[in-house]
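lol forgot to send this yesterday, sorry. struct tokens for the thing we talked abt
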């Protein structure tokens, strides 16, 4: 997989996600719509946390986010169980904006290198496959966020 293609897809997905979030009123960011376990605030933190967890973690590099992010946003977590204050909406939006560039700076030119953790979530074998795996995960959450926004806008 070429760097240009992999990072272009990542950028496109992230830009679509950010565009979805631009107009979401502050009052709806932490609402958990009926039928869901999490808020859109949680979704943002989850996307950021899992992107770094998947790509850096499985590649065998130190994860740049504070470990506390996993307490709030790892799979299986939900706002109803939060103890303490999660990272703010503004902090998460900034990370969403900056993360693709940071990932590109770290991994450009080495997408064909093998991953450090061979037994991983998607059985990815190369760093490029991790980029793809993370992008696929983000696309699924983009769809969830889209559905949540539609429900929240009806309330």
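and heres what i got for the seq, position by position
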């Amino acid at each position: 997989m070429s760097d240009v293609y992999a990072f272009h897809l990542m950028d496109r997905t992230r830009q679509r996600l950010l565009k979805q979030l631009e107009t979401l009123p502050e009052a709806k960011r932490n609402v958990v719509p009926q039928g869901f376990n999490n808020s859109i605030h949680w979704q943002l933190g989850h996307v950021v946390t899992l992107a770094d967890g998947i790509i850096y973690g499985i590649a065998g590099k130190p994860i740049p986010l504070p470990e506390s992010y996993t307490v709030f946003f790892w799979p299986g977590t939900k706002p109803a169980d939060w103890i303490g204050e999660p990272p703010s909406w503004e902090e998460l939006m900034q990370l969403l904006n900056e993360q693709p560039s940071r990932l590109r700076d770290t991994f450009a030119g080495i997408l064909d290198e093998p991953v450090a953790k061979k037994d991983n979530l998607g059985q990815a074998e190369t760093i490029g496959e991790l980029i793809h795996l993370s992008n696929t995960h983000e696309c699924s959450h983009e769809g969830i966020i889209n559905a949540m926004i539609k429900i929240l806008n009806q309330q």
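The CA atoms of residues 24 and 84 lie 24 Å apart. anyway ping me if u want another try
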